[in-house]
Design brief:
Order of helices and strands: HHHHHHHHHHHHHH
Number of domains: 2
Strand content: under 5%
Oligomer: single chain
Shape: elongated
Distance between the termini: 42 Å
CATH superfamily of the largest domain: Tetratricopeptide repeat domain
Helix content: over 70%
Number of helices: 14
Radius of gyration: 21 Å
Length: 270
């Protein structure tokens, strides 16, 4: 997989990894419930009230200092304004106010990835895993995406599968696993998961088409490659890889034409 495609898949995966479950509200209790509510990433803890089904906050959430929550909220706001460097300062402050704030460490990891700081991202994800006792899926997904981008697919696969045990319905997680399996040349599995990921989360459709096109390139299945590239370009006519996709289209068309000539020549022989 070329490095440009790898970066595109990484940033597409990053954009799919949520930091919050919704918008902001001013009431402090409601704010905590919304800011910290990640039911798709959080395994059910019998000692806490379920975040996904209850309007109440858990004992842990109530224990988070107000200063930490406000700093985390400011970080989210800065990140939503495409200011990752400023958001990082707020996430770091949130973690310093509450050392077990695993959501803040996870957010720091996502920001570090966006800034291109791979080692710092890895450390932040590991801190999130440690602080949560391994029960929070987000940092596992982030770490898996980081390892895929570094072409460390063998190391990435078990980490992504661990994340999916914690959050089996998280569509982007299935896409990241498809990416890892493609890197391991397990094409049938990658193909199946890429299709499933785009169904689970339609926002992943363009990335899935790109990954599937690369699956078919490896198989020399130029007809299917063209279908996936056409689908990608309809969704992303001016995307970061659109020019490469058009070049790949022309190459696939030439290969198909050559195949037709070879077949016709063979059929013409007595």
């Amino acid at each position: 997989m070329n490095q440009c495609l790898s970066r595109c898949l990484l940033f597409g995966a990053l954009l799919s990894l949520p930091l919050t479950a919704g918008g902001q509200e001013t009431n402090s209790t409601i704010e905590r419930r919304i800011i910290l509510n990640e039911p798709s990433f959080q395994t059910e803890d019998p000692a806490e009230i379920s975040r996904g089904t209850s309007p109440f906050v858990s004992a842990r959430e109530l224990s988070i200092p107000e200063r930490a929550v406000k700093a985390y909220t400011k970080g989210i706001n800065r990140l939503s304004k495409n200011d990752p460097a400023s958001s990082l300062v707020h996430f770091q402050r949130a973690a310093s106010e509450f050392p077990n704030f695993y959501e803040a460490y996870y957010a720091m990891g996502v920001v570090q990835l966006r800034l291109g700081h791979g080692e710092e991202a890895r450390q932040a994800f590991q801190k999130s895993i440690d602080a949560s006792g391994g029960h929070y899926a987000g940092p596992y997904f982030g770490l898996g995406a980081l390892l895929c981008n570094q072409q460390q697919f063998t190391e990435a696969e078990p980490i992504i599968r661990k994340a999916l045990e914690l959050a089996p319905d998280f569509g982007p997680g299935h896409f990241i696993l498809a990416w890892a399996l493609f890197g391991l040349n397990r094409l049938d599995e990658a193909e199946k998961l890429a299709h499933e990921a785009s169904i689970r989360d339609p926002k992943l459709a363009a990335l899935a088409h790109l990954l599937l096109a690369n699956v078919y390139i490896r198989r020399s299945d130029y007809s299917e490659e063209l279908l996936e590239l056409d689908a990608y370009l309809k969704l992303e006519p001016d995307g970061p890889l659109s020019n490469q996709a058009r070049e790949a289209q022309e190459h696939a068309k030439r290969k198909l034409a050559e195949s037709v000539v070879i077949i016709e020549t063979a059929q013409a022989k007595p």
